[in-house]
Amino acid sequence: MPAPDLLSRPEGWGFNRVTLMLGGLVLLVGVIPLVAALVLFQLHSQTEVEKAEIAAHRMATLLMRSFEQAVEPIDALLQNFASGHDTTAAPYQIYEQLKDFNVPASLVQLAVTDKNGVMVATSLAPPGPEKVDLSDREHIRVHMGKDPAKGQLFISKPVLGRVSKKYTIQLTRPLTDAHGEFAGVVVASYAISDFIDFYKQLRIEDGELIALMGTDGIARARATNKTSFGDDVSTSPAFIAAMQQGGGTYRQASTIDGVERVGYTVRSGKYPILVSVAYSTDFVRAQTADFKAAIWSTAAGLSIALLVVVAVGGSYLNLQKRLEAQEVQALARQREAKVLDAISRVPGVSVMHVTPDGATEIGSPPDGALGCLLRTYLGSRRFRTLVEDLSEPRHINEHLSDGETDIEAEIVVAPLQGMDRGGLGVQEVVVVAVDQTQRRMEENKLYQMSKLASLGEVATGLAHEINQPLGVIRLAASNALTGMKMGLPPEHLVSKLDRIVQQTVRMSRIIDHMRIFGRKSDEHLQPSGPLDAVEGALQVVGAHLRLDNVEVRTTQGPDIPKVLCRQDQLEQVLINLVQNARDAIVERRARSGQDFPGLIHLSIGSEPGKAGRVLRIRVEDNGGGIPDDVRERIFQPFFTTKPPGKGTGLGLSVSFGIIRDHGGALSVENGAGGAVFTIELPALEEEQAAKAV
Ligand code: ADP
């Protein structure tokens, strides 16, 4: 069961959460204050516009009232004059009459014309001989030929007075004779510039407008940053608004000077006059500038404050998370320690915690030997190289020895995940070692058994091998006997006896070999020629192979070196490999139903390797090879694909151990026709071999 990973975090946690938090942060710190500020601006500038409209309305009403109040006494005066006027009076009398009126200062003059529009008298000077014809003037013409009873007060466009040289507007009413017929016009010339001066005193701002307009669309007086009289304003929004709706607010660019304004126009109820007051929208907006600055700084301040709150909150959360993680780590360490302690109590098990500072035994040491040897191993270069790039737990078998005690240990090295790595290069790891010496001994027994099993298997072949020379001996002996009885010459006997000797030599060689093969493996390594081992192995299994129609072909390179080994063990390995090759061929034949000729190719050669020359023995067959999933496991003890009673699963694992114990390597690959096993052993240099003998 895999160990519970106490330190892992749910996956996919980081990215979404971080994106969400960042989004929230931007919203909180940036968007909310910005939106709030924009909404406030909008509301505020709307309020400013509304305020400007109200102010314009109020001002226009006041100005209209003041204009009406200025006109009312003049009109009363004109009506008064008209009602008491005697059309038959001489001009000088009229002049006297005019003078008797208390003419207000705002009036430049009071004048009277006859029914033809010719001036009769003016309050400015006594009547002279020359005739001033005013019949072309609109304020006179407007009354001529009309019913004087319906004559209203007429307020003219501003004109530059011919006599007064001042801008005036003429307020006129018709005069009637005793029969009620039109008899002339009474004219009051009002100095409109007074009005303008008054407007100016109201401090006209840049872009502000005050306009006094007639319902005819002509400005009587217009004050912006310059003053004008008599302009045609019939297309202006102020005029159109007033004429269409009887007065009211407007927000438009002026057709006269192009300035966009917010304004209000009031229409007089008594006179054909409109008054308009307007403020430029730029001016209105400018009123919000301070407010805007204040809002911006408040929004910025709010953002900064929120940022600080978020930062403080974030670091607090981080701290909390770190503390939590530390707590989890500590808990995990405790649990791990407990689990490891429990494991260390199992007999024959030693658990070590290895850091760059050294190895510490966890739990109570068992009998000490395993711990001691393990500690030495953990300090070795071999172990440090193993640990350098370790990311997954590793399982290894090690032969631990101090010269006196030998322990076969099965070791698991596991890096501590989630923990801080101490130091560079070397990780923090846990090492669990199990003493497998006992099991190995059992295995060794099995190995012996497997050897016996092999022997049993080859017995048939051996019987055949021995039977043949025995037959030859028997025949030679009986021939010799017959020869002697027949008194044949001694040469005959010698040749037969020679034959017998030859055959016994051959037999003793086979039997000698069986002895080598059968003895217990406790002898020392000796320099031996690999070709002897190959020959020996083939002697044991050769007959069997021939019976199975499997050809063995041997090739050898030049200068085959000797190796330091126990010949019987090397033979045992070769026998295993050759028997496996034969089994594979036989199996393939059975599977395919084709009785193809079997071939096992043994090639022996040597090559220079990293640490000196290497002897290489390749055993290649045409048995079809080993499937990938099987190949990974063939060196494991007891792994077999053969039917029960046939395979033990020990051959390759034992072979692997033997070659490894000789400082070499046994490897496998698939060749063109089948499996290729390669034995590599360090070669003995010639002088070493000579010394060792
Ligand atoms: P056994 O021969 O008793 O099964 P081994 O350890 O010698 O045990 O071999 C293990 C397994 O390796 C065999 O069962 C077989 O599946 C496979 N094997 C070994 N040699 C060969 C070979 N030359 N060709 C195909 N498979 C092989």
Automatic annotation (TrEMBL):
It comes from the Bacteria. Residues 461-685 form the Histidine kinase domain. It catalyses: ATP + protein L-histidine = ADP + protein N-phospho-L-histidine. It is an enzyme of class 2 (transferase). CDD domains: HisKA, PDC1_DGC_like, PDC2_DGC_like. Its EC number is 2.7.13.3. InterPro entries: HATPase_C_sf, HATPase_dom, His_kinase_dom, HisK_dim/P_dom, HisK_dim/P_sf, Sig_transdc_His_kin-like_C. The keyword Transferase applies. Keywords: Kinase, Membrane, Phosphoprotein, Transferase, Transmembrane, Transmembrane helix. GO terms for molecular function: phosphorelay sensor kinase activity. The chain crosses the membrane at residues 20-41, 293-317. PANTHER family: SENSOR HISTIDINE KINASE (PTHR43065), TWO-COMPONENT SENSOR PPRA (PTHR43065:SF42). This is histidine kinase. It comes from Xanthobacter flavus.
